[in-house]
Design goal:
Largest sheet: 6 strands, antiparallel
Strand content: 5-15%
Number of domains: 3
Low-confidence stretches: 1-30, 32-78, 282-287, 299-303
Number of helices: 8
Number of strands: 10
Strand order of the largest sheet: 3-4-8-9-7-5
Shape: elongated
Helix content: 55-70%
Structural class: alpha+beta
């Protein structure tokens, strides 16, 4: 393989494959006329007038210019994305990177909060055991023991809420990274289905809105005898905070490879409802496996 520099552009020529650049095309055109020039310089055309020489030179220049222009047009890659598309893709990548950065910081703060809340629960649980013993011995009134039970229940409820917010952050991270990964994959045609690594995607053609979620919940409850585990219906507080457009989407907390997940995806495909299933093995998200029903979410531009 060898490289050839043309102006400020470097082209690579693979072994066995010859690339004709605009400059080379012009040179080839001139070389094809060298035998004619040699004849013209000999005695065969010694009687040729100056005007005929001028015509020959003009033809040479014209031929080289046309050949060069033609080669330049052919040198452009037909698969290159338009500039507007490249700019749009770049903006999506930038916005997704911002979502990943801010959501990762938020999740990490919640993880620290969980540790603090867990320590507090241990303290309150030990305090409740001591008060139960003191109550049995008559050292304290029953009301003091009940207060310790209420404090423990409140701390446990708070930690459960923090856990829920951590899971929600994991799902947002998974969707943001999935959206960035989609840019590296070929677009799906209407009705197209694909499984690749951490993503399962289906570009359903049926109209979809959150108003249609009832039929999905009915199917799931009839099939598995429990409510559809919806983790986000439309935009949540976190989606709004991160400016992540989730207004017409619904997240279901089932793993795509589970029995429930496979059955749900099969139902969505039969109904023509678009979805993206995330297996939870994205770079920044390890527990965000879920099925996103609706078109992919994107971050809305703005501060």
């Amino acid at each position: 393989m060898r490289q050839q520099a043309i102006g400020k552009t470097t082209k690579t020529e693979s072994d066995g494959e010859k690339i004709v650049t605009p400059a080379k095309a012009g040179i080839h055109a001139w070389k094809s006329w060298i035998p004619v020039l040699r004849l013209c310089s000999g005695q065969v055309f010694t009687g040729m007038t100056r005007s005929i020489w001028v015509i020959i030179i003009a033809v040479l220049i014209s031929t080289a210019s046309v050949t060069s222009a033609s080669a330049q047009v052919k040198s452009k890659s037909p698969d290159a994305k338009p500039a507007a598309t490249r700019r749009a893709d770049s903006e999506i990548v930038r916005l997704n990177a911002e979502v990943i950065r801010t959501t990762t910081e938020y999740r990490d703060q919640l993880a620290l909060q969980l540790k603090t809340e867990n320590v507090e629960i241990d303290r309150l649980a030990q305090e409740g055991e001591r008060r139960a013993q003191w109550l049995d011995k008559g050292y304290i009134a029953r009301q003091e023991w009940e207060q310790s039970k209420l404090a423990l229940a409140g701390a446990q409820a708070k930690m459960e809420d923090t856990r829920r917010r951590v899971e929600e952050a994991e799902m947002v991270l998974g969707e943001a990274e999935a959206r960035a990964a989609l840019l590296t994959l070929p677009p799906l045609p209407s009705g197209g289905y694909s499984e690749s690594g951490s993503l399962v995607r289906y570009n359903g053609a049926a109209p979809w809105s959150l108003a249609d979620s009832g039929k999905i919940e009915t199917f799931f409850a009839a099939r598995f005898g429990r409510s559809l585990p919806v983790s986000a219906r439309g935009e949540t507080e976190l989606h709004r905070r991160m400016k992540f457009d989730h207004r017409n989407a619904m997240d279901v907390a089932v793993h795509p490879d589970s029995v429930e997940g496979r059955a749900l995806m099969e139902y969505l495909r039969k109904s023509g409802i678009p979805f993206i299933a995330i297996r939870g093995k994205m770079a920044a998200s390890s527990t965000g496996a879920h099925i996103h029903i609706g078109k992919p979410s994107v971050r809305m531009a703005g501060p």
